[in-house]
Amino acid sequence: MKRLTSPSWYALFTAPLLSVFALVVLVPFFMGIGYSFVTWDGLPLNPMEFAGFGNYAALFSDGRFLDSAKHTMLFTALAIALINALALAFALVATSKLKTRNIARTMLFMPYLIGGLILGYIWKFILGDAFKAIGEATGLTSIFFNWLLDPTFALLATVAVTTWQMAGYIMIIYITGIQSIPEEVLEAAQVDGAGFWRTLFQIKFPLIMQSFTICLFLTLSNCFKIFDVNLSLTAGGPYLATEMFAMNIYNEIFSLSNFGYGQAKAVFFFIIVAGFTLAQVAATKKREVEA
């Protein structure tokens, strides 16, 4: 029987997937770019007015959008650092000789399985009503109070919940990287008298740089695009202190009915995320080494 290796067979099996990708991703993406040059409220019966680059020019004088950019940058910086630090620490524990490492690995990964909206509502109760009740019962009201009513603590709460959700998932990638390090390399380091910290920084870290590239890419892109936890946990409050990029775009389109202007924000947001992630991948790729 003739093997099915001709290009036509490859095209046959990939055509359905490419068609779905084009319809679901490419077509809406380019339509969104087109809508970003018009003024429109999103209702089919209402006319569109060509605005040119007016929507894009308005972005830089939109105080609410610029504030959401600041919130997103601060949130992303804090979340990336905490997620990767915790995930790496968890990975080192999960790859040690600890007898309960498999149970620990499972428990740490479980928060990622909870949907973002549900997760946000769970933590909204904990950081709101539960913290307030604990503070009133113990008198520790400087620590246990409704974090979600304070602008600074609300942003920190969003960082904490996102870290709690993603650290276990990122841990799995670091575990894969650590387990791919050849045993003979680690044994040679032990023979040379390298301690834990020297082995970690001079051998393990350089050899798992590919894992760093992947993990930083995932955390950077996901934190920039955060929406579900932001919506259910704080809804952008209090006083818009936790409104991120994605929520600002959502509110512009669906709450304020500025469809064209919201699409301009979305296109600009895409450029920002693509620029940061490509720069990060290029920077970390240069530092990758092979065992």
Could you walk me through the main structural features you see in this protein, from its secondary elements to its overall organization?
The protein is mainly alpha-helical. It has a single domain, classed as MetI-like (MetI-like fold), CATH 1.10.3720. Helices cover 72% and strands 1% of the residues. It has helices spanning 7-35, 54-59, 63-94, 101-109, 116-138, 151-179, 183-191, 196-207, 209-224, 228-233, 245-255, 259-285, and strands at 38-39, 49-50. It has a two-stranded antiparallel ribbon. The radius of gyration is 24 Å and the shape is globular. The mean pLDDT is 90.
Brief account:
This protein has 291 residues and is mainly α. Helix content is 72%, strand content 1%.
CATH architecture: Orthogonal Bundle
Major beta-sheet overview: 2 strands, antiparallel
What is the β-strand count?
Answer: 2
| Fourth CATH level, the homologous superfamily | MetI-like
Question: Hey, roughly how much beta strand do the residues contain?
Answer: under 5%
Inertia-based shape: globular
